[in-house]
Amino acid sequence: MNIKELNIKLNGIDENGEEKEYKISDLHAQNTIIYFYPKDNTSGCTQEACDFRENKSRWTSKAMVIGVSPDSIKSHKNFQEKHGLNFVLLSDSEHILAEKFGAWGEKSMYGKKYMGIIRSTFLIDKNGDVVKEWRKVKVKGHVDEVLAALE
Fold first, then answer.
1. Is residue 50 among the annotated active site residues?
2. At 104, is the pLDDT very low, low, confident or very high (cuts 50, 70, 90)?
3. Distance CA 66, CA 47 (A)
4. Dist CA 140 CA 142 (whole Å)
5. Which of 4, 54, 56, 83 fits as disulfide partner to 128, beta carbons 3.0 to 4.6 Å?
């Protein structure tokens, strides 16, 4: 997949807490890590976001990090402020981008099936090509794995 082909616009919060509109096809100016997570302020999602935050020195000169969930801009802003997140969070409330990346699908909890975000991460190069992907991610150690692939 090449993100240059994705004519999708999503609202987001930048690393300074400012609301912006992002056109996905324009994000290929540098290497980009896009990770999809289910919900702001839940334990696994908070840990993953904080792992990216704490490792900013390892990715900042090499890539841009973007977190994507179906949560609202207001929720993202609260999540970002509460945890001092230093990267972009996009609101994909209609799961358009998640569907394009195959990060939206059937899940199961306590025997109940439902549709939701499948925790996934994608490394995109400067040409807009997905060069590595992680699906059904387990949070512990994941950011280290992604950053090792970036190096």
1. no
2. very high
3. 15
4. 6
5. 4
d(CA 132, CA 78): 30
pLDDT for the residue 87: 93
The domain limits of the chain are 3-150
122, 130 contact by CB (below 8 A): yes
Run of H or E including 127: none
Which candidate in 13, 45, 64, 98 is catalytic?
A: 45
Task: Say how far residue 144 (Cα) sits from the centre of its chain.
Answer: 15
Q: For 61-87, how does the pLDDT look when each residue is reduced to its tens digit (9 = 90+)?
A: 899 999 999 999 999 999 999 999 999
> 3-state class of 85 per DSSP?
coil
Right CATH for 3-150 from 3.10.580.10, 3.40.190.10, 3.40.30.10, 3.20.20.70? 3.40.30.10
| Cβ-Cβ contacts under 8 Å for 36 (sequence gap 6 or more) | 67, 68, 69, 92, 98, 101, 103, 117, 118, 119, 120, 121
| pLDDT tens-digit readout, 9-56 | 999 998 888 899 999 988 877 899 999 999 999 999 999 999 999 999
